[in-house]
Design brief:
This is TetR/AcrR family transcriptional regulator. The protein is mainly alpha-helical. It contains 9 helices and no strands. The termini are far apart.
């Protein structure tokens, strides 16, 4: 058998990391930081403990690595969603819809990120504030910039940009958590998402506040 090419090796690694990531999220959501066990993660991922130790030297490095992977994915989404040449309203609506629809279709992901934010002090210790502020800057920076562009374009209410961004984000987060705890059909979820988007934008669009 010929050795794997670099592309094949990278593909296998991505697939294994996806398995580990999904298994970690299940165990972490059920048992928290203290209860998360490498053996349990390996079992649910369908891989050996040895394989996980190949990627992570111990339990805490696994948890820190998984936290970082999820945070990096969030940063990448925010950048791709908000830092475009489209109208600020289009970007902001796409951003809100993504999170609200995720709350309906993948509620566990909402709880995953919420718990990760809350557990940062446990996972990163003395570096937790640095990680937290770095994450906020990478997520809220593009949002504030989009809000500023919307105000300058006359699309959004002429309110201090950071305050308007926090008001918008508060509406998205609140609606997201409410939708995540409900068990609704796809049709019911669609109606609720539309209602939430309408309410959120009623509060930030120029002429409505």
């Amino acid at each position: 058998m010929s050795p794997r090419s670099k592309e094949q090796h990278d593909q296998v690694r991505r697939e294994r990391m996806d398995q580990i990531r999904r298994a970690f999220s299940e165990v972490y959501l059920e048992k928290g930081v203290q209860g998360t066990d490498i053996g349990e993660v390996a079992k649910r991922a369908g891989v050996s403990r040895t394989l996980i130790y190949y990627y992570f030297k111990d339990k805490m490095e696994l948890i820190q690595g998984m936290f970082q992977e999820y945070f990096d994915a969030a940063k990448e989404f925010v950048t791709g969603c908000l830092l475009t040449a489209e109208s600020p309203l289009i970007r902001l609506e796409r951003y809100a819809r993504f999170y609200l629809e995720t709350a309906v279709t993948k509620p566990r992901r909402v709880y995953l990120y919420r718990n990760m934010i809350n557990d940062m002090p446990i996972v990163f210790g003395g570096q937790s504030q640095d990680y937290y502020h770095s994450f906020l800057d990478s997520v809220h920076g593009p949002l504030v910039r989009t809000i500023e562009e919307g105000i300058a374009a006359g699309q959004l209410a002429e309110v201090e940009p950071v305050l308007l961004a926090q008001t918008y984000m508060g509406g998205v987060t609140g609606a997201m958590l409410e939708l995540a705890k409900r068990q609704v059909t796809a049709d019911e979820g669609h109606v609720l998402v539309e209602q939430a988007v309408s309410l959120i934008f009623r509060g930030i669009v120029k002429g409505t506040v």
